[in-house]
């Protein structure tokens, strides 16, 4: 709606006639409604004032007058009292009703006197069953301070008892029974703690929330990988439990014992279906016919160096190795030893190697920390840093020592991990 | 016939023990220049030697090159067969001597380097130190074993011939015409293996006489002791692990019960 342009003199504000007077603010122009926009359609509404109906369920007998629009149909007589629209909200709570006798019989409680119980019921009724309000209004001069949970528990127990009295359990309907159950299972302590927890949750600070979320994610990660960690650990444990030899290898040092061993092995081999050992002329047993087809002086597989001790010097009584491997020079066993010829080695590295390396190389690990750890363990065990005599026996002994050192290192690593895990679990269990 | 690929003996290796070490004396000492050069307090000799009862080292070792500290004139000293492979010098400081071993041509192997740290000061237990000072002789020596893996046929033949022990044997026999017989005189049977026990008369460490099977047994015994210690540690660890496993189970139950 436009403001009609006012006639002339007004907009052009007069120059201050005198500085003393405050300049007039431009007066709001009255809005002029266009007559076209509002048109009263029909007559204006009629309102009538009426008395309310008397005592429509109100306890205080309030009477009032109200305006209400006149009914257009005119069927209702103009004088009918106003129905109370809010009557239906006038709900009263159900309260357990008991008399003195019932009380004496079923409702006696150590901490609650009859008066107090009555007072509680009364307040409940007045406050419409809203517990915060009830707690507020409750003030019994003689009694101790009651928390909301206390009041609730007493009230519910009373209600439950009354309910049970009125309708014995067997004839309760399902909803009634559920109600009864709820009433009797009220646990004040639990409720109190639950509410406290909720309050704590409500009021905690942001950094606590963050910390909690981080810890939860950590826990989740651990739980997820728990299975894999467990299997890894089991594997490591199995690996570390290496089998210990029951027998001593050193009982086979004499030549007699060696020949005996050789014959035992040969006999055992013969029993098997597919023989591994081929006989030579030296074993003293008659060879079975299927075997005789093979050339006699071919390579009689000597027992693995693994079953024999590393002392190669005492091979004298064994079947001769002289005719094997096409040695360019035929040598007797003694000569082999004198000249330091070692045979039947597989996996020989090419070229020239040194035995003292076998005593020094294993001590060095990929990282310096590992090397240091190995060095401390060896020192603690009493192994000198420089072993000046690298004979095969010494080398073998050193090898077994090194394998134990590695086993020890692995176990220590495992121990660290396990201790960590134990700490976590202890913390968990302690909570 | 390719000259480089001679047949190799499969699945065989030849081992030879030899000694690398050094002797040191406080000057003045016989055998060393007197008066000693400026600031030089010790005279030393670094060497590569065979076992006293072993085969001739020159069968497989043709040349040895000792690389001394760069402050020496002619830091690189080369000794060829047969001469004793030794370098004698005076000095005051310890350093690592790089030793380059050149093998016999039949072996077809390249030269290898070993290092030896020259020890000039007394070392070891109190008793050892006292003895070293008394005798004015410090020896730092170790046994080294060279292993020729899958040697060539020629090399094999050289290294398994009886002639290697000729240097230990004494010529006996008639004069011209007859081939001299070589007879071995001495306590220890010549062999490439370690002698059974330390040779009594050939003296102490310096001449390598102390290397013997007896010593080997001592070393092995010592290592076995060490192994026992390790076993004890392992047992301890294992017990700890059992304990922890039990504890973890307990805690697991406690947590699950909550």
From TrEMBL, chain A:
Gene symbol?
A: SWC4
What is the protein's name according to its record?
A: Swr complex subunit
Species the sequence originates in? Vermiconidia calcicola
From TrEMBL, chain B:
> What top-level branch of life does the organism fall under?
Eukaryota
Protein's recorded name = NuA4 histone H4 acetyltransferase complex and the SWR1 complex subunit
Species this protein is from: Vermiconidia calcicola
What does the organism's lineage look like at the top? Eukaryota, Fungi, Dikarya, Ascomycota, Pezizomycotina
């Amino acid at each position: 709606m436009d403001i009609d342009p006012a006639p002339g003199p007004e907009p052009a504000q007069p120059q201050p006639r005198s500085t003393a007077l405050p300049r007039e603010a431009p007066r709001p122009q009255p809005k002029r409604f266009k007559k076209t926009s509002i048109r009263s359609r029909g007559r204006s509404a009629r309102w009538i004032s009426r008395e309310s109906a008397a005592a429509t369920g109100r306890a205080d007998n309030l009477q009032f007058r109200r305006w209400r629009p006149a009914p257009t149909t005119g069927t209702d007589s103009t004088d009918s009292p106003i129905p109370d629209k809010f009557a239906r909200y006038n709900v009263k709570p159900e309260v357990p009703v008991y008399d003195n006798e019932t009380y004496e019989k079923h409702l006696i409680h150590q901490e609650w006197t009859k008066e107090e119980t009555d007072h509680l019921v009364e307040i409940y009724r007045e406050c419409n069953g809203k517990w915060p309000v009830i707690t507020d209004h409750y003030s019994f001069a003689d009694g101790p301070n009651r928390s909301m949970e206390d009041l609730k528990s007493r009230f519910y127990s009373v209600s439950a008892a009354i309910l049970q009295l009125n309708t014995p359990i067997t004839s309760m309907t399902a909803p009634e029974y559920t109600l009864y159950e709820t009433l009797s299972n009220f646990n004040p302590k639990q409720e109190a703690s639950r509410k406290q927890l909720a309050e704590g949750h409500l009021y905690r600070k942001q950094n606590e929330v963050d910390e909690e979320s981080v810890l939860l994610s950590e826990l989740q990660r651990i739980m997820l990988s728990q299975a894999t960690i467990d299997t890894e650990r089991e594997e490591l444990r199995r690996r570390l439990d290496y089998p210990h030899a029951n027998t001593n290898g050193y009982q086979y040092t004499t030549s007699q014992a060696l020949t005996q061993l050789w014959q035992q092995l040969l006999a055992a081999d013969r029993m098997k279906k597919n023989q591994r050992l081929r006989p030579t002329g030296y074993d003293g047993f008659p060879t079975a016919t299927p075997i005789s087809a093979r050339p006699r002086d071919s390579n009689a597989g000597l027992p693995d160096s693994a079953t024999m001790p590393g002392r190669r010097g005492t091979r004298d009584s064994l079947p001769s190795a002289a005719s094997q491997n096409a040695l360019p020079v035929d040598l007797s066993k003694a000569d082999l030893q004198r000249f330091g010829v070692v045979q039947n080695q597989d996996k020989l590295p090419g070229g020239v190697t040194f035995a003292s390396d076998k005593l020094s190389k294993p001590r060095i690990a990929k990282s310096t920390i590992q090397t240091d750890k190995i060095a401390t363990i060896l020192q603690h065990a009493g192994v000198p840093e420089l072993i000046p005599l690298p004979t095969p026996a010494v080398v073998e002994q050193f090898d077994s020592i090194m394998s134990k050192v590695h086993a020890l290192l692995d176990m220590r690593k495992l121990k660290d991990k396990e201790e960590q895990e134990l700490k976590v679990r202890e913390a968990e269990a302690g909570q | 016939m390719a000259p480089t690929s001679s047949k190799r003996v499969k699945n065989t290796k030849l081992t030879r023990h030899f000694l690398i070490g050094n002797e040191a004396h406080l000057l003045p000492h016989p055998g060393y220049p007197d008066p000693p050069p400026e600031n030089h307090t010790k005279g030393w000799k670094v060497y590569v030697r065979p076992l006293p009862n072993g085969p001739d080292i020159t069968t497989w070792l043709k040349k040895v090159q000792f690389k001394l500290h760069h402050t020496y004139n002619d830091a690189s000293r080369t000794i060829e067969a047969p001469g004793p492979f030794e370098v004698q010098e005076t000095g005051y400081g310890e350093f690592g001597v790089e030793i380059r071993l050149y093998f016999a041509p039949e072996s077809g192997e390249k030269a290898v380097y070993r290092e030896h740290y020259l020890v000039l000061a007394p070392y070891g237990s109190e008793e050892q130190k006292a003895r070293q000072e008394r005798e004015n002789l410090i020896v730092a020596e170790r046994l080294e074993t060279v292993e020729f893996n899958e040697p060539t046929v020629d090399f094999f033949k050289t290294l398994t011939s009886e002639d290697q022990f000729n240097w230990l044997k004494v010529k006996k026999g008639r004069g011209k015409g007859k081939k001299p017989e070589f007879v071995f005189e001495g306590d220890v049977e010549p062999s490439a293996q370690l002698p059974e026990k330390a040779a009594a008369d050939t003296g102490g460490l310096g001449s390598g006489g102390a290397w013997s099977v007896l010593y080997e047994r001592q070393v092995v015994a010592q290592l076995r002791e060490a192994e026992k210690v390790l076993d004890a540690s392992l047992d301890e660890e294992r017990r700890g692990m059992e304990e922890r496993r039990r504890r973890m189970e307990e805690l697991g139950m406690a947590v699950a019960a909550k």
